[in-house]
Structures are given as structure tokens and as C-alpha cells.
Amino acid sequence: MALFSIVFKNNVGIYLAVALSILLIGNSSAQLSTDFYSKSCPQLFYTVKSVVHSAIQREARMGASLLRLFFHDCFVNGCDGSILLDDTSSFTGEKRAAPNLNSARGFDVVDNIKSAVEKTCPGVVSCADVLAIAARDSVVILGGPDWGVKLGRRDARTASQAAANNSIPPPTSNLNSLISRFGAVGLSTKDMVALSGSHTIGQARCTSFRSRIYNETNLESSLAKARQENCPRPNGVGDNNLATLDQTPATFDNNYFNGLVNRRGLLHSDQQLFNGGSTDSIVRTYSNNVNVFNSDFAIAMIKMGDIRPLTGSNGEIRKNCRRIN
Ligand code: HEM
Ligand SMILES: *[C@@H]1O[C@H](CO)[C@@H](O)[C@H](O)[C@H]1NC(C)=O
Ligand SMILES: *[C@@H]1O[C@H](CO)[C@@H](O)[C@H](O)[C@H]1NC(C)=O
């Protein structure tokens, strides 16, 4: 209250106070909490983790795919499960948007988790929250840091292909555009670098890195040569051939950053983080100290999970993640 009585003494103060209250009201993520389902679904964490665990045992890459789904959900109108909606004859969702088409995967695993959760707590837990927990579990199972996942998000009744096209950064991005795309959703440059460390797991398709391995000079030559063997130069040939994003794709470690320091980033956007610019020092820090990376990564994941959630009576708790109720 003292703050308000001081600022209200002049006109500028009134504007400040109004701006401050808009900020506080606008911050709906204040309603998310780690114990949101502790009474309504006490087995939730156990249930999610056991399904994620068996999916990763079948295929280690699935951990990477689930983590990426959460990112692609959160960057498009907030973490609201919108990416999980299937297209229908009368509805165009996000699955066929440019960043997701032939690329986003793991939807069956999300279905399996959701069905397991519905068995014990029907109609209680949102798909958006299931994805947030599955992303954390994937990181932990593959050897990365743990964090308390904030919960209480509700599911969107809409999706936006246009927003998916325009909000998720493409691999052709330069450093300034990466900084500004993350800034647009309230994430700092440091958050952006830490979150890019997700590329310590998983794979990319030839079409995502072709121009880099044939045309760019800030790429270590033996890696360029090795990647060219499974990614032919002509557009359209071998587009979906896969390559790992770092040398240890099934372990969540800081090898991705060691790779960047050695000019071994696979995507153009990866190497932008260590190319003589303002983020070189952050990359060096993460490359030298896995504990700093792990801790910054966990903080940034919590921040990303706070992007514009639907709460209260907004949205719904979907029964099936693929369609609105
Ligand atoms: C900084 C901007 C980013 C760009 C430009 C970018 C771009 C990409 C691209 C092009 C791929 C390969 C997709 C394909 O070829 O099918 C990929 C894979 C991946 N991305 Fe990112 N990404 C970024 C940030 C992030 C963030 C913030 C996360 C998670 C928090 C993330 C997690 C992943 C994971 C785990 C994979 C591997 C997925 C799999 O194997 O299924 N990325 N990313
Ligand atoms: C999104 O991108 C895809 C692929 O480039 C394109 O086919 C589609 O029309 C775009 N959608 C919108 C709504 O702009
Ligand atoms: C490399 O750059 C040249 C000249 O800009 C372009 O014509 C060619 O398509 C590029 N190659 C690849 C594989 O992107």
C-alpha cells in the first residue's frame, strides 16, 4: 500500500500504478501452482512418468519429441494444448503448420498418457498440463535437471495455424531474430540460449540443415562432410533423412554447447548462438559448467511454461487431447 500512496501523488504516478495493476492482473500465470492437482489427482505425477518412461524405453528419441511439443505449444498463443488438436474438415489446427508438418511427433504418447490419467482422475487434468509434465519427465529420464512443474493450465478450444507459422522460430533464423522471437513471449536472451540447449537431445531432418552443410563456412568441415553423406544437395531428395543435433542425442547433457564452441552446431540457428556475437559468453559458460546450464535450463522451462496459460473458467479440460469436448 505504501508504494501506491507514494506513486499516486502525481499524474505520472497514476499511470505507473495503473500500468502496475494491469501487469499484475495480466499475469495469469500467478494462478499456476505445483500442487494444483494434489487433492484432485494425487497419482498424477506417477502416472505420467510411468507412461513417458516406457515410451522412452521403446525409443529414446521420444523424450526429445515430447520436449519439443511443449515448446511448440507454448510459443503459439501460450501453453494451452492447442498443438494437440487434430485437423478436421471444418477446422485447421497447428499440426500442419510449417514448423510442425512432417516434424512434430509424440502425439500417440500424449494420448497414452492422457488415457492413463483419465482412468484415475476423469475430466480433471488438462492436456496442456500433461504436456508440461511429460516434457519435464523426458528431460529427467534422459539425465537432465529436475524442477517443480507449475500446473493449472486449461485447454484451448481453438488453435492457430497462422500463429504457429509466425511464432515458432525457423532454423534459418539469425541471432537477432531468435532474441526477438523469444522476447516476444517474455523470455530473455539467456533463457533463449539455455532453452536451445534442448538440442542436446533428438534429431533433425535434412531439409532443416541442408543449406548449412553445403553453403556455410562456420561449420567444422569433417561434420559437414559426414552430414552431406546422408543429406543430398538437391532439394526434395532425402528431405526426411535424420541426423542427431549433437553427439549424444539420447543424453541430456551440455555436449550441445561444446559442439557450438567447436563450430559443430547442426542448424544455422544453433551456430548463431556462438558466432562472434553477444551470446558467445553464455555458450562458453554452459559448455564449461553443466550445473549452470542445468539450473538456467530449469528456470527457463518454468518461465516458458508460464506463457499465457488459460486459467479459471477459460478454456476447458479436454477429455481427448485431439479434439475439443
Ligand atoms: C531457438 C530456436 C529454435 C529453433 C530455430 C529450433 C529449430 C528446430 C528444428 C528445425 C528442429 C528439427 C526439426 C526437424 O527437422 O524435423 C528442432 C528439433 C528439436 N527442438 Fe528445436 N528449435 C529451437 C528451440 C527449441 C527449444 C526452445 C526447445 C525446447 C525447449 C527445442 C527442442 C527441440 C528438440 C528436443 C528437438 C528434437 C526433436 C525430435 O527429435 O523429435 N528447440 N528444433
Ligand atoms: C502455414 O504454412 C504452411 C506451410 O508453409 C502453409 O501451407 C499454410 O498456408 C500457412 N498457414 C497460414 C494460415 O498462413
Ligand atoms: C547454396 O547457395 C547457392 C548460392 O546462393 C544456392 O544457389 C544453392 O541453392 C545453395 N545450396 C543449398 C544446398 O542450399
Number of structurally distinct domains: 2
Give the overall form.
Answer: globular
Oligomer: single chain
According to CATH, what is the class of the largest domain? Answer: Mainly Alpha
The helix/strand order is HHHHHHHHHEHHEHHHH
CATH topology of the largest domain: Peroxidase, domain 1
CATH architecture of the largest domain: Orthogonal Bundle
Q: DSSP helix count? A: 15
Largest beta sheet: what is the strand line-up?
1-2
Question: Can you summarize the main beta sheet?
Answer: 2 strands, antiparallel
Q: How many angstroms does the end-to-end distance come to?
A: 44 Å
> What integer is the average pLDDT?
93
The unreliable regions are 1-26
What binds here, in terms of ligands, is: protoporphyrin IX containing FE, 2-acetamido-2-deoxy-beta-D-glucopyranose
What's the number of extended β-strand segments?
A: 2
Classify the secondary structure makeup into a structural class.
Answer: mainly alpha
